[in-house]
Amino acid sequence: MFMVDVTENALKQSREGDIPTHRVLADEEFLPFKENSFDLVVSSLSLHWINDLPGALRQMQYVLKPDGVFIGAMLGGETLYELRCSLQLSELEREGGFGPHVSPYTSVTDLGNLLGQAGFNMLTVVSSGT
Predict the structure, then answer these.
(1) What is the DSSP annotation of 35-62?
(2) Of all residues in the chain, what percent are helix, strand and coil, respectively (each to 5)?
C-alpha cells in the first residue's frame, strides 16, 4: 500500500498497521507513479482542495491499471452554503462588498463530467445531501 500526502507531518502521524505501507511525500496534482501501477486509488476528503481537479483526476486514471477502481470522497455542491451566505451578507452590510472565505465546491453533475473526461467509465457518483 502507498500513502501519499502533500504534508510530511500527515505522513509521520499515520499509525502503523498490519499492511506494509510506503509513505510518499507528493502532490495529488503530480503523482510520482508510472502508468498502470495500481489496482485501486482511494482519495478521502482531499480532492476539494486541489487547484487542478481535472488534471488530478487524469493523473489518477493514468496510474490505475485497466479496469482499476477509483474511490473518492470529497466535499461538494452546496456544502457550507449557509456559512457562505452568512459571511457574504455580513461583509456586504459592513464593507459594501465581499470576498470568498469558503472554497468553491464542485457540483455532482460537474464531477461526473470531469470523471468521464478524465477517462473513467462505469461511473457512480453519489451525493449524500441532507
Answers:
(1) TT-EEEEEEES-GGG-S-HHHHHHHHHH
(2) 35, 20, 45
- For residue 108, the model assigns a pLDDT of 83
Q: What is the pLDDT of residues 19-47, one digit of tens each?
A: 899 999 998 889 999 999 999 999 988 88
pTM exceeds 0.70 for this model? yes
- How many CB atoms lie under 10 A from the CB of residue 26? 15
| First-to-last C-alpha distance (Å) of the chain | 34
Residues 108 and 123: their CA atoms lie apart, in Å, by 12
User: Residue type for 2, please?
Assistant: F
Q: Tell me the C-alpha distance between 64 and 38, whole Å.
A: 5
